[in-house]
Amino acid sequence: MTKQKPVLTLKQFMLRQEVLTLYRTIFRTIRQVPDEKSQLELKDWARREFRENAHHTEELSIKMMLNYGKRCLSELQTSLSLAKS
Amino acid sequence: MAGLMKSLRLVSRQASFLRTYATRPTTFAVTKFVRRNQLEAQILAPSTSVLLSPLERCYSSKPPLSLKLITDRVLLVLKLYDKVDPGKLSLDSHFINDLGLDSLDHVEVIMAMEDEFGFEIPDADAEKLLKPGDIVRYVADKEDIYH
Fold first, then answer.
1. Which of B97, B106, B107, B123 should one mutate to test binding to chain A, selecting the residue with the greatest count of A CBs within 10 A?
2. Fewest CB atoms within 10 Å of the CB: A63, B73, B78, B92?
């Protein structure tokens, strides 16, 4: 039997969409990394981080994790642009 | 000054040769090249036969797609994904309901499809692709394949 998905409130839905967008952006940025091995390591790291924190249900902790993820993403982007220049 | 003019003329000649090679048919450009420089022509002779026979240029392009090829590639990518059970996999199996993936896995699957077919899928379209059949139809739409 398929289990019934809990209906999300608008706020939860928007947060969820933000998390998924961040996940996608991180993966797209990782694609630009020149080294294959580093790409795999970064992908594994990203997957692990997201999975370990997937259980949070409070809005505040989700937002904290989102900001942490965005900070990591901007660090990755700065190091990529530094490496390219 | 004279040496500079000589080197400039040489460079411009090579540049004009490159221009002719790029814009005129390969046969004409090759014969012009051959007449110009006999020594290099000897080195180049074996490859001119390859250049002369097809009169069209072979730029690197993707292999011609068909619906069957797209379906095979989509299913292969899904089988290689370790969280998917190949026994339950079919064109109509829903990622989340039937195959037991979650939304993060869904994002990963869509990105794998982007890597496979070489074009980006925007977020708005990606969240609608919930079955392998949807993905096949989407790729066929994007690549204009009808059979």
1. B107
2. B92
